[in-house]
Specification:
With 289 residues, this protein is of the alpha+beta class. The protein is 51% helix and 15% strand. It has helices at residues 6-10, 14-24, 40-51, 103-129, 160-177, 181-200, 207-220, 227-240, 243-255, 275-287, and strands at residues 76-81, 87-96, 134-143, 146-155, 258-265. The protein has a five-stranded mixed sheet. Strand 3 (134-143) and strand 4 form a beta hairpin. The longest helix is centred in the middle third of the chain and has 27 residues, at 103-129. The two termini are 43 Å apart.
Length: 289
């Protein structure tokens, strides 16, 4: 995706590739990050001695920022392959990525993290009651600026609708009644435990952690917090999150613009549902009392 579409790549010429390299892969767009127990003044001298001879680019066009507009048209894709053994449905809803600029952004990120954990726990509980059910939920970054919340449901060709509706009915039921207090408490406790472990290991954090902090500050103006301040803020914000916050996330998923991706064995392609079938399955599950 950072390179572009296949159509653009197929039209790319040698001169076009060279022009791209000169425009973007240039010394004045480089960032060198050094993390460690060093003498800053001496290290700066060494860096300048090695890199100062690199020529500057004249009349460069500078940096360009692009935004991603969320799609308001549901997408539907079916992919089949001979190596695939079972069918997997993925219902995905797009979200703008949360940049942690302030405590409000950080709290929103924690709400999503707890929502993901609460959903995973709910699906695990469903699977213990119904051994045939295999479903997962996660929120991940698709691109810079864009996140996806994804519900994955595995099934075989003989019970596609049944498994899909069983899982989706569970989500609809939770959206009506809310997550149990116990589910929220478990999810919050895990987050607090993870934060405590990271804080306890603060003296052994990888250099990559600090490098990422510096990159975020340099590229996206995201402030970096000392580990101690972050830990204190984590405890306060996680404690403030309630069932309504998590319920709103589920409502956002239930009523959001959904994109459906199906991956299935090649030999079962003709048995795969159409987009209208998926819409009907969700509608039927939503009517369930």
């Amino acid at each position: 995706p950072p390179i572009g579409s296949m159509a653009a790549m197929e039209k790319l010429s040698a001169s076009g590739l060279e022009a791209f390299q000169k425009k973007w892969l240039r010394p004045d767009l480089q960032a060198l990050i050094i993390v460690g127990d060093i003498d800053v003044t001496e290290m700066k001298k060494q860096i300048e001695a090695v890199f100062s001879s690199l020529p500057a680019t004249e009349n460069n066009s500078g940096n360009t920022s692009f935004s991603i507009n969320l799609s308001q048209t549901p997408g539907f894709v079916v992919v089949t392959d001979t190596a695939v053994r079972e069918t997997t449905f993925t219902l995905a809803v797009q979200y703008p990525e949360v940049d942690v600029i302030n405590s409000g952004n950080l709290r929103k990120k924690f709400v999503r993290d707890i929502f993901q954990q609460a959903m995973s726990n709910a699906l695990t509980t469903l699977a213990t009651k119904n051994k045939d059910i295999n479903a997962t939920f996660l929120i991940r970054r698709a691109e810079r600026g864009l996140d996806f919340a994804m519900l994955n449901i595995a099934a075989n060709e003989n019970n596609l609708e049944d498994h899909f509706q069983t899982v989706y009915k569970q989500l609809v039921q939770i959206s009506r009644n809310g997550f149990p207090d116990s589910a929220l408490a478990i999810a919050k406790a895990k987050m607090l435990q993870d934060a405590k472990k990271m804080f306890a290991a603060r003296s052994r954090l990888y250099a990559r952690y600090y490098a990422d902090q510096i990159c975020n500050r340099f590229l996206y103006k995201i402030p970096d917090l000392p580990v101690e301040s972050l830990y204190e803020l984590q405890q306060q914000l996680i404690a403030s999150i309630n069932a309504k916050d998590i319920g709103n996330c589920l409502q956002e998923f239930i009523h959001g613009v959904k994109h459906c991706f199906i991956v299935a064995p090649q030999q079962h392609r003709k048995k795969m549902p159409a987009k209208s079938d998926i819409d009907n399955w969700m509608a039927t599950a939503s009517k369930n009392k």
